[in-house]
Specification:
- The complex is a heterodimer of chains A (about 200) and B (about 270).
- Chain A is an alpha/beta fold.
- Chain A contains eight helices and six strands.
- Chain B contains eight helices and eight strands.
- Chain B has a five-stranded mixed barrel.
- In chain B, strand 2 (about 25-30) and strand 3 form a beta hairpin.
- The chains are: A alpha/beta (about 200), B alpha+beta (about 270).
- The interface of A and B includes residues 116, 149, 161, 178 and 181 of A.
Chain lengths: ~200, ~270
């Protein structure tokens, strides 16, 4: 919301900030005046970072993760198990799985999950590309690591159905109790699956 | 001051979720007592949220909601039915999502329609038992009836005359079946077979389980789906988004005759 009276450049900056998710008109104003007061170098660094993110980031042609060069470092690496592919919804999910340090395979980013009611169908996701990778050989196991939500589950089942004829092993992340949770407030679905997936102490 | 209560209770099915800010979601609930309403679930996207699993779309939950300035806020939520077997079946969840979208699109906020809520709950239970797409047909037809859009199928909608036992025109604009003589005035529509006419009539007097248990030959089932789909499109002025998903999933083909579930009619 450009305020009346503010000089045009600042009004424009407020306007741009307010397009960001979670930024209302007041926050946008505060951010814009902060940039105005900040040292010129800081402002330039911000501008450069914004431009770079659009100019230098591309999608990896194999896993569709975000990267500076195609193919990405993960897909090119010699230390990864190329027979394992972990399928996630978003590029951020790759970082989260990597942070665990427990996965040495490759990734595939779908860029979303099926959401039939909002009209997100299979053709908007990188599902065909995943089929292509599996058809090309090498892959022995596909790990579905989509969110344990209605949309994520539907996506997993859908992808599993497509992969089945290719004879590849398809697995799903286990579902259970999050650490630090309170049993009293756990929903039936999570608790019943946690019971089924119980393990020897 | 006779202030209105600060909170209210409702039991309903979560229809959809939209994310809000960092960790909140806006959920749309369809309940028997309040009708459809939106409320904010604060912090529900955090791993440790106490309400998270209880406010997933396609869950039936009991909720406690506080009045807010713009939007109401969930303060407690407890699952009544998580529809686990339904979620674990791709075909059944597609049908269920389609039903949820119909409810969302056909209803107005805060207009309770207890019969529609009962119909939804009964239909989800049947889908979960593996009853198949005929549940959805029954759901569509009853939903239209409950909202005052029931097609007239017992006689000709225009002249009121009896329909001979032959195919007839089903015209959404005219609001039902038209006999051979009235066809020119009935507007656009689709010629439906005797089998479909019988199914449309049966849906009026059957219960959901009775209708779902009917064995319908594949071509009649397809014809009924198209015909009812056109009624829906006419009253909604669009096709529901989830219909494409139902069709897409149908095109995949089942890998095996559906798991343990009932001896469902192969629609």
């Amino acid at each position: 919301m450009p305020e009346a009276g503010a000089p045009e450049p600042i009004a424009r900056l407020v306007q741009e900030f307010s397009k960001l998710p979670g930024i209302g008109p007041k926050s946008a104003q505060r951010l814009a005046y902060h940039v105005l007061r900040a040292p010129e170098d800081d402002a330039r660094a911000l501008a450069r970072a914004l431009a770079d993110v659009k100019e230098r980031i591309v999608f990896c042609g194999t896993c569709f993760n975000i990267t500076e060069r195609d193919p990405c470092g993960l897909c090119e690496s010699d230390n990864r198990d190329r027979t394992l592919v972990c399928v996630v919804e978003q590029p951020l999910d790759v970082l989260v799985v990597e942070r665990t340090g427990g996965f040495r395979g490759l990734y595939h980013v779908l860029h979303g999950a099926l959401n039939p009611i909002d009209g997100v169908g299979p053709e908007q996701l990188r599902i065909q590309e995943l089929l292509g990778r599996v058809e090309a050989g090498d892959v022995a196991e596909v790990i579905m690591a989509t969110n344990p939500s209605l949309e994520g589950e539907a996506t997993s089942m859908y992808v599993q159905r497509l992969l089945q004829p290719l004879g590849v092993r398809v697995t799903r992340l286990a579902r259970g109790l999050p650490s630090g949770a309170d049993l009293e407030y756990m929903d039936d679905l999570t608790l019943s699956r946690a019971l089924e997936g119980r393990q020897e102490l | 001051m006779a202030a209105r209560p600060r909170v209210y209770r409702a039991e309903g099915v979560i229809l959809r979720r939209r994310n809000l800010g960092e960790a909140d979601s806006i959920l749309t609930v369809f309940s028997g007592s309040e009708g459809k309403f939106d409320a904010i679930a604060k912090g529900v996207r955090k791993a440790r949220s106490r309400m998270r699993g209880h406010l997933e779309p396609l869950t039936r939950s009991r909720v406690l909601v506080a009045h807010g300035r713009t939007l109401d806020v969930f303060t407690q939520a407890e699952t009544v039915e998580s529809y686990r077997r339904l979620r674990e079946d791709l075909e059944a969840s597609a049908e269920a999502l389609y039903c949820l979208e119909l409810v969302d699109r056909f209803t107005e906020e805060r207009e309770p329609i207890p019969e529609l809520y009962a119909l939804l709950v009964a239909s989800l239970a049947l889908l979960q038992e593996g009853a198949g797409p005929s549940v959805t047909r029954f759901f569509e037809l009853r939903l239209l009836a409950l909202l005052g859009y029931e097609p007239h199928v017992e006689g000709c909608v225009l002249c009121g005359g009896r329909l001979p036992e032959e195919e007839a025109l089903l015209s959404p604009a005219a609001g039902g079946l038209a006999c051979r003589q009235c066809r020119p005035e009935a507007g656009a529509g689709r010629i439906v077979s005797v089998a479909v006419i019988k199914l449309l009539r049966f849906a009026r007097r059957a219960t959901a389980p009775e209708f779902a248990a009917m064995r319908v030959p594949g071509d009649a089932a397809g014809e009924l789906r198209t015909a009812v789909g056109e009624l829906i499109r006419y009253h909604l002025d669009r096709d529901p988004n989830a219909r494409r998903f139902v069709e897409g999933v149908g095109a995949l083909g089942r890998e095996e005759p559906s798991p343990p579930s009932a001896p469902d009619s192969p629609l």
